[in-house]
Amino acid sequence: MPPFQESSALFTRRQFFGRSALGLGTAALATLLGREAGAATGPSRRFGGLPALPHFAPRAKRVIYLYQNGAPSHVDLFDHKPKLRELHGVQIPDSVVGGRRFSTMTGGQTARPLLGAIANFSRHGRCGAWVSDFLPRTAEIVDDLCFIKSMHTEAVNHAPAITFFLTGSEMAGRPSLGAWLSYGLGSETDNLPAFVVMTSRDKEESCGQIFYDFYWGSGFLPTKYQGVAFRGRGDPVLYLSNPAGLSREVRRGLLDDLAQLNEIKRDDFGDPEITTRIAQYEMAYRMQASVPELTDLSRESETTLAMYGPEVRRQGTYAYNCLMARRLAERGVRFIQVMHAGWDQHRNLNSQLRIQCQDTDAPSAALVRDLKQRGLLDDTLVIWGGEFGRTPFLQGKIEEVKQWGRDHHPYVFSLWMAGGGVRPGLTHGASDEFGFKPIEGKVHVHDFQATILHLLGVDHERLTYKFQGRNFRLTDVHGQVVREVLA
Question: Are residues 230 and 327 in the same domain?
């Protein structure tokens, strides 16, 4: 007999009630008081989460992660390197490459000519940040942004690198960042999930990146903490609409009866996933009322809609998802993960990078502006970035201009943050003259994760979950808060 079943079989009814009656009563009372307090105090309410969290006063209440799948080219967008243009077509020195590994697409390529940025750079704002001309709207908000130009990671291929950023491990199976925050901090609403995910891709479908469910999975945490993926067409979540002839009152009665049956099974088997299933049914019922209001854009002003760009009215686009992110944030959702694929320019850098920037530039900047003008940016952390950067040298042949591209580059890359307690108008860290490796203020993925948790009032070393005899955490056994970026 498995140990869990044996323990349950030997645990008598008298022992159960003797040991747990006080705990169950306290938990029930805490839940009731929590809901009453939430109703009384408005925005400060919290549903779920661990009682000991936050560990200290948070600077951010929520996160919107604009994840750019495929890896934006840092040397073409944010990391201005005149040396690349000066030495355009010249072989990158072996002393710089130093035997480092790349993907199989350039792993055996002996000719590695340096490739100058395909767009011009200019300084912007009071802070004088360098931004590519491909991102004019982002350039307008640089004084609200905090750039990190010394990020580095370990994975050299997309899925492991994305998984590493979002879960702290290159192998699938660990809880994602949003799941950790849902587990630890709960949500400010009980009408929507604490963790929502939306995906989109470039219109040309030039990038073959796949959105795997484990990018927003709960790993070994109970599954009620996993992200709820909103669909790009039709009802955002399946089965939100009742079948014809089934009223909301009848649905309520069915759920009540089903909950009683599930509770019987839970008492028989002690399976915590049954509790998750009950909670999911209840959340789905509440979402039947909250989601239609969430997705109704009729009250958005034309000025706001225009700011996000012409694609904002089309469900499933990056612009639409950015607007939905703002609406979810103002309704109390803790973690909003907006993932957009299309940045993997191996053979189409000259054509596709500009298009990708046109699709994402205005919506990303509009989200920051929109949050700021509504007073939400101060306590909302917005993150924009991918899983790694792109090589400063060319993938392919220098004479085949139409097929210029850049390979994966984990050794240094750039991302930006806004709001939520980070220093606006700051550029942290720097890469060498080729944009090949960090030389100042190095920031590893685990450091970045620790910093995000810190901004939310969480000590990354203390948010743990015991699994298979070990206390796991998002940052594994690594990570230091990057205090230089804190406001």
Answer: yes
pLDDT, averaged per 10 consecutive residues of the chain (487 residues), comes to 41 44 38 37 71 97 98 98 97 93 86 96 98 98 98 97 98 97 96 96 82 97 94 84 73 74 79 75 74 92 97 97 98 97 95 96 98 98 98 95 96 98 98 98 98 98 96 97 98
Is 11 within a domain? no
39 by Cβ neighbours in 10 Å (0-12 / 13-18 / 19+) ranks as exposed
Say yes or no: 415 and 401 in one domain.
yes
- Full residue range of the structural domain in which residue 211 is found: 49-236+295-485
Please work out, in degrees rounded to the nearest 5, the angle formed at the alpha carbon of residue 337 by the alpha carbons of 48 and 419: 85
Structural domain includes residue 71 = yes
How far apart are the C-alpha atoms of 280 and 277, rounded to whole Å?
5
> Are residues 251 and 377 located together in one domain of the fold?
no
**Domain annotation covers residue 54:** yes
Q: Are 209 and 351 spatial neighbours (Cβ–Cβ below 8 Å)?
A: no
CA-based nearest residue to 49, from 218, 225, 215: 225
Task: Tell me the two tokens of residue 225.
Answer: 């903490």
Same domain, 339 and 447: yes
What pTM value is reported for the model? 0.87
Domain count, the chain: 3
